[in-house]
Specification:
The complex is a heterodimer.
Chain A (H helix, E strand, L loop, with lengths): L1 H12 L12 E3 L2 E6 L5 E8 L9 E8 L2 H8 L6 E3 L5 E5 H6 L3 H9 L8 E5 L4 H4 L9 H14 L8 H9 L6 E8 L2 E10 L5 E5 L4 H7 L7 E7 L7 E19 L2 E17 L5 H30 L6 H8 L1 H6 L3 H7 L1 E12 L5
Helix pairs in contact in A: 9-12
Chain B lengths: L11 H11 L6 E8 L4 E8 L5 H13 L18 E4 L2 H9 L3 E5 L5 E4 L29 H11 L5 E8 L5 E8 L5 H13 L8 H8 L11 E3 L2 H8 L4 E5 L5 E4 L11 H4 L2 H30 L7 H10 L7 H21 L2 H21 L5 H16 L3 H21 L1 H17 L1 E2 L2 E2 L45
Antiparallel strand pairs in B: 1-2, 2-4, 3-5, 4-5, 6-7, 7-9, 8-10, 9-10, 11-12
Helix pairs in contact in B: 4-7, 9-13, 9-14, 11-12, 11-13, 11-14, 13-14, 14-15
Classes of the chains: A alpha/beta, B alpha+beta.
Organism (chain A): Anoxybacillus tengchongensis
Keywords (chain A): Coiled coil, Germination, Lipoprotein, Membrane, Palmitate, Signal
InterPro entries (chain A): GerAC_N, Spore_GerAC-like, Spore_GerAC-like_C, Spore_GerAC_C_sf
Chain lengths: 364, 488
């Protein structure tokens, strides 16, 4: 017993109340926005919740201009009502203009280096100047930071866009065989919209984007079809005119077969998709025409997939990670390439999707 | 007093005078002079009329004595319809038995006294146990009379191996203390240890079983109980069958059982009469309640004072809004509320039922509503305090429940000083202490430390009864087999 008391007394000597980070005394930076400022300065927006019934706004936005993120934090602490901390940061938003001009890593370093910062924050590209989103009036939505996160997650689930956190962004950036990507956020008529995918090159600069419509195909190539990927396809050949068919893809089997022939990489991509027919604009006799419909759907999907792969090749980016297969199966030629994205741009990629309709609903 | 060491004389008058000298200012001592037999012989009946059954004296002693027609030479000639009687010549015995409600019959010309069992003091009827009520178990609880309590136990175990040892504790009180055990199961060393400890107790009297427990427990500085106090005969019997020793203290409605293990304080008799899945679920619930009761307020303090990162964002925003007007740091807020609820509980405990309800209402309004509206504490804190209180009430044993409620406060202070690290240190100290704790020389941490996997069947989960074929080793039983394999 006496020994226990000594133990406790020893611990008491090590008390440091200054180490406390009491929630009441903190300003939680939930969203960080990076934009291009004047004279090459960095414009930083910090969005944090305000817990005070007397305050008009339930969140505050602090805008500072400085050399780096930490320099801006130093300046922002002069405005903030509590010590600013980044442990619960939900999203890091950068403007498209900034992303086009600069290597993103030169700005994001503090997120990775300081362990008190959250590395699971979502990385988002904003299409337009950041003040559009930071000072947006959202009367029918929760706090801005929560709204941004919720919009992004919902759009990601329905495959309107994708999702990537700071840690994954770093991994893709540093991997020789891949290039990073990020979801795009924009403001349209006073509403937040998440849609489309920003593509970064090996230098971590923004080079181009996939549209909201192309995003589900990106998800399919990325083997990311759960919980379900919904597509509406225009099909010719069922009847005399163009008919629209909607399917919901429930499962998929993927096979990526790389090979190296004549100084060039070849990829044979087989994708077998199990889909539920959810809507058609014409009557289809499923007993007779199921095979035909499946083939037409596969052809249309193939067209779309080839289009986005082509796009990626022209941008010289590989967000899907074809390079991972090349490195795994054709290591020697992969190792000889000076730059994988350049080799990828020249590669020949055959995509052969097949569609199987596993259910066509409760109608005949 | 010297006279108590002495022997009786043959003269009735001299004996009566000795008694009168000894029992001064004892108005309830009755001297009843009788003439019995043919020819008449003087006799004296002495009893404390506050401790005897008067019907028994009138009908079974005085009545037959008055109508006695035989000649009475010695006291052995007297035949009375009372089963339990004894003879003595020592004043010491006479006085001791008088105080136990027996009646002494003295005969002129005989130095022997006939002591007759006419005990009949005020006692309560056997009633439902108040503290440990049960859904399916028996509804008979122990009362304040040792013999009745032993009778309740014997009804469950009509077996010759159930041994009963009587002794007394206390110089003034002479409290009868009775040890019950199964001779072929209980370990003789443990039994001897218990006998020795009880023998060494040198006090005025034992008013309650809890006092004896504190005099003989292994570690008086431990927050955890080392003996089980129960008022349920079925619980006592199930522990007897595991090789434990039951100590019945006269005048106290709870019996003491030892040696115990930590986990047995989380078991109830109902566990064995419900089906095993339900019983296992309840066991898990109690274990969860144990952790909640100790750690929930301290986790709140640690998270709010040090580790805001571990709280999910939506909860963090809710907590932030809820704490917006609270002027107190988390530790003070938590201690304020915990103390308030402890006071409420204590106030409700000692008050008669009608006033107790008022306390409940006042406390409910004050803690639940007014404190939050006044901005002294946050909503979340109220939820946490209520959850903690409920969790501590789930623990079936009141002693264990109280020690857990006490441990909460040092944990809260540790959490406010060191955050999660402090909680971990506190938890390690508790674990370390439990491992080293002993009950009657057997490890209290058993079957976890020392680990005996076979005995885990009746700990966190309660396995089906037919799988528990051996007695747990914790009480060091000398006979392990509890039941034969009769079911596949």
């Amino acid at each position: 017993m006496r020994r226990h008391i000594y133990f406790v007394l020893c611990f008491l000597l090590t008390v440091g109340c200054g180490m406390q980070t009491r929630l009441d005394e903190l300003t939680l930076v939930l969203t960080v926005g990076l934009d291009e400022g004047k004279n090459g300065n960095l414009l930083v927006y910090s969005v944090s919740p305000v817990f005070n019934k007397e305050a008009k706004n339930i969140y505050e936005v602090i805008r500072t201009s400085g050399l780096t993120l930490r320099d801006n934090r130093f300046k922002a602490n002069a405005f903030a009502s509590g010590k600013m901390v980044g442990g619960k940061t939900q999203s890091v938003i950068i403007s498209k203009n900034l992303a086009k001009k600069y290597d993103m890593f030169s700005y994001l370093d503090v997120f990775y280096r300081d362990p008190k910062n959250s590395t699971t924050a979502n990385f988002i590209v904003f299409d337009g100047p950041l003040k559009d989103v930071m000072y947006i009036r959202l009367d029918d939505k929760p706090r801005l930071s929560v709204a941004i996160r919720d919009v992004l997650l919902t759009a990601h689930k329905s495959k309107q866009t994708t999702k990537i956190n700071l840690l994954e962004f770093r991994r893709l950036s540093l991997d020789r065989a891949q290039t990073p990507f990020a979801p795009i956020l924009r403001v349209h008529k006073g509403d937040l919209i998440a849609g489309g995918i920003a593509l970064f090159n090996k230098q971590r600069k923004y080079v181009g984007s996939l549209s909201q419509k192309e995003s589900p195909y990106f998800a399919i190539l990325n083997k990311n079809i759960k919980p379900a990927t919904s597509l509406t396809l225009a099909i010719k050949g069922l009847t005399k005119q163009k008919e629209y068919v909607s399917i919901s893809i429930e499962k998929g089997d993927f096979s990526y077969k790389p090979s190296f022939q004549n100084g060039m990489f070849h990829f044979d991509v087989h994708i077998h998709l199990g889909a539920i027919l959810t809507e058609t604009t014409t009557h289809i006799d499923m007993k007779k025409e199921k095979k035909k419909l499946e083939q037409l759907l596969a052809k249309e999907i193939q067209k779309q997939l080839e289009a986005i792969v082509k796009k990626m090749q022209t941008y010289e980016v590989d967000p899907i990670g074809f390079g991972l297969y090349a490195r795994a199966y054709e290591y020697k030629p992969f190792q000889k390439q000076k730059s994988w994205p350049k080799a990828f741009a020249k590669a020949e990629i055959n995509i052969r999707p097949t569609v199987e309709i596993i259910s066509y609903g409760v109608l005949q | 007093m010297n006279s108590t060491q002495q022997l009786l004389t043959h003269s009735l008058d001299a004996n009566e005078q000795t008694l009168r000298d000894y029992f001064t200012k004892t108005p309830d001592l009755v001297y009843c002079h009788l003439l019995i037999g043919e020819p008449k012989k003087r006799a004296l009946l002495v009893y404390l009329n506050t401790l005897v059954d008067k019907n028994s004296i009138n009908n079974n002693i005085i009545d037959p004595l008055l109508f006695e027609t035989k000649q009475i030479h010695t006291i052995a000639d007297i035949q009375l319809p009372i089963g339990s009687k004894s003879y003595t010549t020592k004043w010491e015995h006479v006085i001791q038995h008088l105080f136990q409600g027996e009646t002494a019959l003295l005969l002129d010309g005989d130095n022997h006294v006939l002591l007759l069992d006419t005990q009949g003091w005020p006692q309560r009827a056997i009633a439902e146990p108040q503290i440990e009520s049960s859904l399916k178990g028996s509804h008979q609880g122990f009362i304040e009379t040792c013999e009745k309590n032993i009778a309740l136990i014997r009804r469950y175990l009509p077996h010759q191996q159930l041994k009963i040892e009587e002794t007394t504790v206390g110089r003034r009180g002479h409290t009868p203390v009775t040890l019950l055990y199964l001779e072929d199961v209980a370990h003789p060393e443990v039994l001897q240890e218990l006998r020795d400890r009880i023998e060494q107790v040198d006090v005025d009297t034992i008013v309650n079983t809890g006092e004896l427990m504190q005099h003989i427990e292994d570690n008086p500085f431990s927050p955890f109980p080392q003996f089980l106090l129960t008022e349920r005969p079925d619980a006592a019997v199930s522990n007897l069958l595991q090789g434990r020793i039951v100590i019945v203290v006269d005048r106290s409605p709870s019996v003491m059982i030892g040696p115990m293990t930590f986990i047995t304080f989380f078991q109830t008799v109902d566990d064995y009469s419900t089906r095993w899945m339900i019983a296992s679920f309840l066991r898990l619930l109690r274990l969860l309640a144990f952790f909640m009761a100790i750690f929930l307020p301290s986790a709140y303090i640690a998270a709010l004072s040090f580790h805001y990162e571990i709280i999910p964002l939506n909860l963090l925003l809710t907590i932030g809004e809820s704490r917006e007007r609270v002027p107190l740091p988390p530790l003070l807020e938590a201690i304020l509320m915990e103390l308030a609820i402890e006071m409420l509980r204590e106030a409700g405990l000692r008050l008669p039922a009608p006033i107790g309800q008022t306390v409940g209402i006042v406390g409910g309004v004050v803690i639940g509503q007014a404190a939050v509206e006044a901005g002294i504490v946050s909503n979340i804190m109220v939820v946490i305090v209520s959850l903690t209180a409920i969790a501590s009430f789930i623990i079936p044993n009141p002693d264990m429940s109280e020690s857990i409620r006490l441990l909460r406060f040092p944990m809260m202070i540790a959490a406010s000083l060191f955050g999660l690290v402090g909680m971990v240190i506190g938890f390690m100290l508790i674990i370390g202490h439990l491992i080293s704790l002993e009950s009657l020389g057997t490890p209290e941490g058993s079957p976890f430390a020392p680990a005996r996997l076979r005995d885990w069947k009746d700990t966190i989960l309660r396995f089906p009864l037919w799988m528990m074929r051996t007695r747990p080793l914790s009480a060091r039983p000398t006979q392990l087999t509890r039941q034969k394999k009769f079911r596949k």
